[in-house]
Amino acid sequence: MTDRSSHDTQLRSRAWFDNPDNPDMTALYLERYLNYGLSQDELQSGKPIIGIAQTGSDLSPCNRHHLELAKRVREGIREAGGIAIEFPVHPIQETGKRPTASLDRNLAYLGLVELLYGYPLDGVVLTIGCDKTTPACLMAAATVNIPAIALSVGPMLNGWFRGERTGSGTIVWKAREMMAAGEIDYPGFVKLVASSAPSTGYCNTMGTASTMNSLAEALGMQLPGSAAIPAPYRDRQEISYLTGKRIVDMVHEDLKPTDILTKDAFVNAIRVNSAIGGSTNAPIHLNALARHVGVELSIDDWQTYGEEIPLLVNLQPAGEYLGEDYYHAGGVPAVVNQLMEQGLIAEDALTVNGKTIGENCRGAVIEDTNVIRSYDNPLKPHAGFRVLKGNLFSSAIMKLSVISPTFRKTYLENPEDPMAFEGKAIVFDGPEDYHHRIDDPELAIDEHSVLFMRGAGPIGYPGAAEVVNMRAPNYLIKRGVTELPCIGDGRQSGTSGSPSILNASPEAAAGGGLALLQTGDKVRIDLGRGTADILISEDELETRRKALDAAGGYQYPAHQTPWQEIQRGIVSQLETGMVLEPAVTYQRLAQG
Ligand code: FES
Ligand code: MG
């Protein structure tokens, strides 16, 4: 055990509440926090001040249960000898924020950096959940580098409709197809979609929320076994209490994000991401986190470390089950143990409980092999991402684990050239253009068409929209063609099972090759070699490039808000995490 007294004299909150060099300011700080109801004795007793960064609110229903859980977190903090101070984080709700919630990840990040840096906080509990809340909180804690522990709000209970599991998000894609095919009417559509969200909590599928919460645990930033506990379960209350207790000790031990978020931790998370069938948004958020904590992580690392890892977790959209099943089957520790037995986990990576991931997860059993498979009996081999490059973009990723048998049969079983296909490009400029024209017979889309979405990246559609997975036109769906290859410079919802080529960087709006593409161009995608190209001559490409430059570059919609304009001016591409570039230079603020 570390010598507590020696650390306590260095608590950063002393600079506010007990600073002999500045008695005037100390009085001012004390006066206002006394006003809130604390006593001078408490504030000067050497107890760590622990922030609870509250992401729940009426505006963010996925995380709203944190308002309840925070009560148990406070009890844990108090019992361990700390003082809790709860404060709001800029709310983010994935499906309700227009034009896109990811515009707000960096805004919540910036706001939280200011709070953690500028107020008398010795440690913080990060209340994570809905997609962007997790990376926003982790990124801010990494930048400031005070002791931090994440607490997941937990997934919703399983959704059910007529005896079958309906998963949040994922059911929307299916219900849309059913409505387009005339199988259900609009009230039936709404009823089916609503069945997937039966309780408080985040999406019960392996979408971006479940992915990022699992990865926060795999990174070592949450207590072991905590990520998968469903929101309404009693165990969720208990882990909230334990999280509150633990952060106080972390402050005494001076255990900081930089001690936990090492390259080993990121490689562990990449491997876990493949095994759980994690979201295509994970590389964006983890690469962003790595940049803020100062760890070298590239998009190619995702293929290098993750591609060969098999799919072990049978959750929608890649599989059948949902969040409750994942928890009962053993959650993250059971997955980590499977990888660990193959030597695929850096076991010495430290976690928030002060132990290594190896100590935490060794021997964690799979309780239900239908939901979590063993490494030697996986659902699919090679569940990670393939990184593609070519004259269309310098990088884009494809999640191989969601390629359907039909897609494989239609596009990837050419005996002369397996894993490669050519097609006619159909180009849409942003989601509005796509919605407007997808069913237009003039486009003459057929099964040899490849749908392109551009103008949907961090600059083009500020924050990058989840719009790359596009449905086939209704006239094709009625003929039984439901899936067309989709490629774009935007993102895709983690709850979508579509085998799209995503996150293309640089985007059209940043001068990427997609800006030069025209409807009718022939394109060639080779998943085996990892290439994606427009099949036109260098000269023709050059001519188009000059014409584009002369026209002032790729045109995108005007800014609607001040934040859109500010972010567009300083944001990096999806490949490098869509971070605010100037923010990356600010690291370890609390030590600085
Ligand atoms: Fe918030 Fe899925 S929309 S977790
Ligand atoms: Mg999402």
Automatic annotation (TrEMBL):
Keywords recorded for this protein, A-Z: Iron, Iron-sulfur, Lyase, Metal-binding
Signal peptide start and end residues: none
Keyword presence, Repeat: no
Domain Dihydroxy-acid/6-phosphogluconate dehydratase N-terminal residue range list: 47-360
SUPFAM superfamilies: IlvD/EDD N-terminal domain-like, LeuD/IlvD-like
Domain Dihydroxy-acid/6-phosphogluconate dehydratase C-terminal: 370-577
Lyase listed as a keyword: yes
Entry similarity comment: Belongs to the IlvD/Edd family.
Protein name: Dihydroxy-acid dehydratase family protein
